Fold this sequence. Notes:
The chain is mostly helical. Helix content is 55%, strand content 0%.
Amino acid sequence: MNVGLVANTYSGITGGQGALQSARTSADSSKFSELVQRFQLQNEGRGTVSSSQIVENGRLNGDFTTGYAGAFVSESDKNARPSGAAVNQANPHVQQKTIDKTSELYQKSMELEGYFVKQMLSEMRKTVHHSGDSDFARQTYEDMLYDEYTVAMTKNAGFGLADQIYLSLV
């Protein structure tokens, strides 16, 4: 049987839609291939970029909290006295240590204290009754608000937990 006759018969049955669909698919495929090739040429020699190269040390893309970086920058913060619970020591004859609040270790200690404060606030938040339906956007923004509460409380409340953590690691 003649292939041309079969193609003409098929085209006659579908009203030419088969050939039209085939042409569209072929055009879309070639456009996509061109787009992929353009992206490959643009990125040639660059490699991939990790989030650690984009944002400051220790922070992730999408981390929208204020954070603890730069919370203490003055000269007096380099030899600060412990505060809060860290002031109470079991032996009064032991020399009080000073804390370098500008160090990265203290910043990480504050992050750990912030984690504990966030857990406390999360449990307290569960006791609050919300009226109406809970939607995703409200929950997201409320979570962000409580993250900022956590950072503010950790920086300003003087719990002293970060001071204790720092002193135990030095």
